[in-house]
Every structure is written in structure tokens, then in C-alpha cells.
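fold-stage: in
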Amino acid sequence: MSLHRRTVHLEEVEGCFGCKISGLQLSPGDASSNKVMGSKKWDGELAAYRDARAQGIQPGGTTRKAIDQALQASENLGRAYDGGTMPKASRVNKKTAKLMNETGI
């Protein structure tokens, strides 16, 4: 029981500000978690994505992993990878790239 309820009134009173704030629960939310990416990492990923796009490569996403996979797929293909029309970049190895180039995909 809160100090307000012990000293002012024992029952919760509707409209009483003291009763209202005594029921609040505070939480740090996302500020205490590691879900939020640091600005240095964020800027690095966006710069890598921008560089890939400047080369004509369309990664399947903006994460570093997706960008690196698209770069590797482009190297295997011998041309720019397009995540919108081609298979997943992680599946484009040299054998797959050869078949893709032969069939015109």
C-alpha cells in the first residue's frame, strides 16, 4: 500500500491525483535494451548499402549481412545482383551463378 493511501485515505478515491499516481509503474522500455542499434553501426550499414547501390547492386535488405551476401553474389555472377528479381543472395554460389548466366536470369 502506498504512503498516500496509508496517510490520506485507505480506499482508492476516484479523481484523486495521489491515488492515480500511486498505481503508476515505471519501466525503462527500449532505453535499457540492446534492440536499438548504435548510430556508428547504423551509419556504417547505410554507407555500405549506398556503395552497393552505386555499383548497381540491389541487396535484399539494408543489414550488413544482406549487403555482404549481395556483393558475393555479384562477384559470383560477374554482374550486379538484384534482390528483387533473383534468388536469395545466400544461394547464389558459383554453380548457381553459372546456371543463372546460361539461362539469362
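fold-stage: in (second)
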Amino acid sequence: MRDERVRKINEEIRRIVSDIIRNDIKDPRVGGMVSIVRVDTSKDLRHAKVYVSVLGEDDDGERTIEGLKQAAGFIRRELGQQMSAYYVPELTFVLDDSIEYSIDISQKINELHQDREDD
């Protein structure tokens, strides 16, 4: 039962933080295609790791994470106003490259298929 509660809280945080980043963050470092992949909250709900994927150049991800770290207090405050929880967790932003990795693997598979068709 407790795991289900944490899962629901993780999804709620993911949804709200996504909206905040998309609509309220004005930092130019946090632009482009930013996606919240997942959120992992500790069992005591005091800390949450927010996994962020950034589509773009290699250094866009690092700049986006820096911008999000600078805005973490603002994001946490907005999260607290929109979330119905007794305690709002500290947010830690982590760059997640799983989407880019998946795209890269997909492109390599397509290239292999093209090479086989050409032979």
C-alpha cells in the first residue's frame, strides 16, 4: 500500500513540475525540449530526484540542469502550492539521457537495415 502511495506522489510531482517548467520558468538555459522522465521520491517523502531529459545539443542538457538547480527553490514553492501534501520534498535534478540513447540505437538499427537492403 505504501509503495502505491509513493508511486502516486511521484506521478503527481512529475506532472506538476513539468507544468511549472513549461509555463513558469523564464531562465533562458531551460528552454527547448525538456521532459521530466520520472521522479523517485524517498520513502519518508523528504527528497525527490527529478530525472530530466533534454533534446538538443550535447551542452544543452548541462545548461538546463544548471538552470533548474538555480530555480529549485521556486519550483519547490510552486509545487507546494499545487500539491496537496503535508511536506514538499527537496528536489534534485538529474540529467537522464535515456531518450537520446533510444533515438541513437533506433537510428543505428535503421542504418543496419538500410545497409542490408543495399547489399
